[in-house]
Amino acid sequence: MVNVVDVLVIGTGTAGYTLALALSKAGRKVAVVDNRPYGGTCAMRGCQPKKYLVAAAEVAHLSQQMSRIGIHPVAQIDWPALMKSKSAFTEAVPGRTEKVFQKAGIEQLHGTAHFVSADEVAIGPDLTIRAEHIVIATGSKTAKLDFPGAEFTITSDEFLELDQLPRRVAFIGGGYIAMEFAHVAHAAGATVTVLQRTNRILKRFDAELVDRLVDASIAIGMTVTRGFDTSSIEKSHGSFIVHGSAGRTQLIEADLVVNCTGRVPDLDELDLERGKVTRSQRGIAVNSFLQSVANPHVYAIGDACGAGPQLAPVADMEATIAAENILNGNSKTPDYQGIPSVLFAQPPLALIGMTEDEAVTSGIRFRINRRSMSDWPSSRRIGQKHAYYKVVIEEESGQILGAHLFGHNAGEAINIFAMAIKFGLNNRDLKRMLWAYPTTVSDVKYMID
What does each C-alpha distance from 358 to 321, 364, 411, 413 come to in angstroms? Predict the structure, then answer.
């Protein structure tokens, strides 16, 4: 059977959801398909459920550091209860998403989609969808490990479904997912080891602040091992031995090993060659309008595209851009300037714009304001021992080129700098603002003199 629609959207995460609704509202006949329950990574296996765990870790961490200044007893995480709370949110997502699609008149399909021609996609053995436009919004998945014993690891998806947290947990990788979940596991009482292949973790962040995060992680009892190239995992008496080499043979014992080596576009099942769709190293190869460079019927958005950072707000923005281009012809391009990133560790690490190294190589005349905030009132009142900021400012204009924050509420305060970069505000503009005081955001004025 062949079904004809105006637009077929493959994937129902934040990118596919946003685009499908926009096109349906504009009068297009839209169908969506997903081979997993509707909702996508952010709502089901990423941002939102992760933040449930991060919020609990933050409370446990704050109570621990404030135990020196009058908070008793120290909070403890009830892991099964926490996971039940998280699951109450995620389990409602598919049904809620389907109701929204139904109300919008969007055709809902379930199954694995794959191209059979440039404008046709098969879903199962009996249904083919022909569409004027096909939008790939399949997101990303955990990169596979390739060494003996890799099958003993679990992914971040499975970590978010653990009924019980084992006593010793090793995380392979030194990126966002590894560090965030490592801090969650530590706050929940596990003995935690992070194993990073190279000597640098969190390569996207400013190196100086990353070192401060590592120091803070070690200070609370975590182990961060850099230069550990995992070579094999063996099962031994109910636990695991992780072998690695860093100029000498090393091994780590753990009850659980989590693969956090990164994420790759989830494209393998689409049979892109039959659809005349080409790939780049980061995902679907697209032009500046998010349209496939090889097949004009196809657009790609979100993590499947890889044009911008793998962040939910970026996926939403790309969905809006692609929808406008499908409706009105290619005229809109995404703007990736001024997008903040936050690592939700304890405390969090946030960035926007240029790092110090990038500023040095840019040729721009700049200065850097940097200082520890551990003695500031905003740190002292919560017992915070590790807090730091670094702001990169253009010398003559006072424009904010970059900001790097490490400390409690950094994920909120970084949005002020993001707004400044996005809309061209300089340090004088920010200093004229009368912030609510005393707040973490009101500390911004001391960072930009």
Answer: 28, 10, 22, 22
260, 192 contact by CB (below 8 A): no
Based on the fold, state whether residues 93 and 154 are members of the same structural domain. Answer: no
195-235 tens-digit pLDDT: 999 999 999 999 999 999 999 999 999 999 999 999 999 99
Q: Is the dihedral of CA 178, 179, 184, 188 positive or negative?
A: positive
Domain match, 170 and 275 both: no
Token digits for 352? Answer: 């926007």
H or E element at residue 52: helix 47-65
The CA distance from 293 to 270, in Å, is 17
Low-confidence ranges of the chain (pLDDT < 50): 247-248
pTM over 0.90: yes
User: Is residue 340 within 8 Å of residue 347, measured between CB atoms?
Assistant: no
Any alpha helices (H) in 239-335, and if so which ranges? 312-328
Beta-bridge partners for 307: none
200 and 307 part of one domain: no
Regarding whether 14 and 98 lie in a shared domain, the answer is yes
* Strand 256-259 versus strand 249-254 pairing type: unpaired
Instruction: Tell me the C-alpha distance between 15 and 26, whole Å.
Output: 17
Which residues, other chains included, contact 425 with Cβ-Cβ below 8 Å and sequence gap of 6+?
400, 419
